[in-house]
Amino acid sequence: MALKSTIYKAQIQIADMDRSLYADHSLTLARHPSETDERMMMRLLAFALAVPADTDRGALEFAAGLSDTDEPDLWQKDLTGALVQWIEVGQPDDRRLAKACGRAEQVRIWAYGSSTPIWWQSIAGKVARLSNLEVWQVPPEASRELAALAARGMQLQITVQEGQIWVGNGDHSVALEPVALQRPTARR
């Protein structure tokens, strides 16, 4: 018998001063049986840091990710079905990144975990030419602290200012400062 996904509900309040974005979102996340709290919370963080101010070019949505190799963790499609954003959490291989960069206007990776420097060293040269790729590393201790905030029903406040991020639930908060490993060099 196959295990089913566990459903998590999150109410998030975003105050992103770097993008002048202030918004509330009610989210439903399906946590795949093989997914950890840490990875699920990284997907939630990736949503908060990439959600557009409006839906003129489509809404940012959670995609199949772990369940479907042809989909990212999050994506934004415009009204024609063209991919605006392709967002992955973890450490995808260079071939997957090249394919995603060919399909979407912007590809963003949120890498976490202690093995990120090894992963990045092995693919950095192969993906340097991908002009629409943005890669961020979240320090492993910060992503583990973020996992501790996971609950089936969450109310989170996410504040972004000058590249620093604070995520809190009223009782506990996590401060993190992602490191840019690669920034996009051109926009399509």
Automatic annotation (TrEMBL):
Gene3D superfamilies in the cross-refs: Restriction endonuclease-like alpha-beta roll domain
Lineage summary: Bacteria, Pseudomonadati, Pseudomonadota, Betaproteobacteria, Burkholderiales
Organism expressing this protein natively: Ideonella oryzae
InterPro entries: Restrct_endonuc-II-like, YaeQ, YaeQ_sf
Segments passing through the bilayer: none
UniProt cross-references to SMART domains, sorted A to Z: YaeQ (SM01322)
Origin: domain of life: Bacteria
CDD domains documented for this protein: YaeQ-like (cd22368)
Record-given protein name: YaeQ family protein
